[in-house]
Batch of 3 targets.
Target 1
Amino acid sequence: MRFRTAFIGAAVVATSFGMAAIVVPADASTHVGAFIVRCGFDHSAPDDPIVHPNRAFASHVHSFFGLRGVTSNPKSLLGASTRCGALGDHSSYWAPALLVNGKPVVPDELRAYYFGTGLSQRPPAHFRVVAGNAMSLKQQSMTVAYWGCGSGSKLSKVTYVPQCKSSEDLTLHVKFPDCWDGKIPADGNFTRDVASDGQTHGDGKCPKGFPHHLIALTMAISWPVHPKPSSVSLTSMGQNSAHADYASEWAPGFLESLDQRCIAKGKDCKVVGG
């Protein structure tokens, strides 16, 4: 299989057959770099364009962020306007809707945290992936999902739904797999072809069989509520079924620029694009 250089954050020496050989630029950093994209809530719908493409109303209800008007048709992910502050981010982000006493809560926003080092690669084109376990009945590892009460709180990272103060938003973080086996799935769903390096900031070691270390994504969703924990559930399988979906689409050169300016140089660029 051939690999195109557009897939890769470092320089590449392509070979005709087999894996491409990665050559790390001299100025590439092994320190963690980062940037954040803030995206507004668009709508909620019982759709999942990755798990159930072209099948409306086939899923539990998800809250969609970023790209406007996403439906069950994957083609609708391309070319639409965005609610993200970084206008070059045409990606769509979605997660199960939050319920309090059985009633849906409108989210505040989503923050997409991107992490990596000079060794991290940009994802392949039209990268589609699901993170977390929508069927889990027990607490998941905090390297996959965790709850919190906003940044700076004593309860900013816990495995259970916390009791937040009236001044704090309830938050949910979901970390996406960041190691890729190099295969391009026919159905466009990369979930079976990725694994996690086990570290929140994407600076761990990829498992055997997944040689491509991708820029790591953690999605953080906030809701302007502070309910009793026992009243909270997700539309999937309760409090422990945290998961999220990511459909990666970027304006030409936009992700490459952020990678070179922030990730590859080990620089924390904070929020980009407002």
Target 2
Amino acid sequence: MPPAASVALALVVEDDRCLVQMRHSCDILNGLWEFPGGKLRPGESAEQAAVRECAEEVGLAVTPIARLPDHEASYAHARVTLHPVLCRAAGPLPANHWVELSRLRELPMPPINATIIDDLLKLLRTLQ
């Protein structure tokens, strides 16, 4: 059985756009788009990990707004529990890859992200 990991995802939304990045060529699932994020450290909440990973990966300070439902995904290399966190930028926006919310589903992403995108859009409708 592959090892299990808990991963926070920072779903950073600004002006009807969401921040995404392409997985590194040396990573498993390389060439796919993803939300910034990474493994939770011992004792770290999903919100804390999302803030830390955004700063580390894209140089963006963020503020957590809301948690979305957790999701589990199984791959040949690992079992992953994803902890999505809706975030807002708390500093200047980097010139990273921002995608209109209406176009998120067009990006090649890991399959579990389709459900996460649905959850995100549903949550955003309730916050309007």
Target 3
Amino acid sequence: MSNQHIINLIDEKRITELSETELSTVRAHTSACDPCRRAFEAAQLSALLLQERAAETFTAPAFFHTRVLATLRERNNANQPWAWTRIWQAAGALASSMVVTVAALAVLTFAIPGSPDPLLVTDIAANNYAEEMMLSQGELADDQVSDGQILKTLYAPDEEGMR
């Protein structure tokens, strides 16, 4: 075994995981091989340091949790703009187009006088004609006009045949 070094065995497994036969093989080899003995001692020392370090308990300083959360809040508030600014950035184009549309409709409705609809004028004239005809014929009783009387007046043939 003096021709084969045990460094590969130490590298593959932890010292705590070596079996008794492997440990006896390592001890037998390290008695004759100085580089392997130093590597084995270093591995034992590393395992001991890691075991001691893992056994330590860490206690946070007073108010550590509060300071960390306060620092996180400060960073988040410094990086984020005000809530209304973020909302305007997201929906600014939509809101602007809605305001422009409402303004255009207001101008078209109130500022620019429109011509009356010819169909609407015809309907008003027909209703006025029907009321005048019924009044002249005396068919209105108690100023109540029925739908039948209006239709009869509107669609009854004139003396000329057509209106």
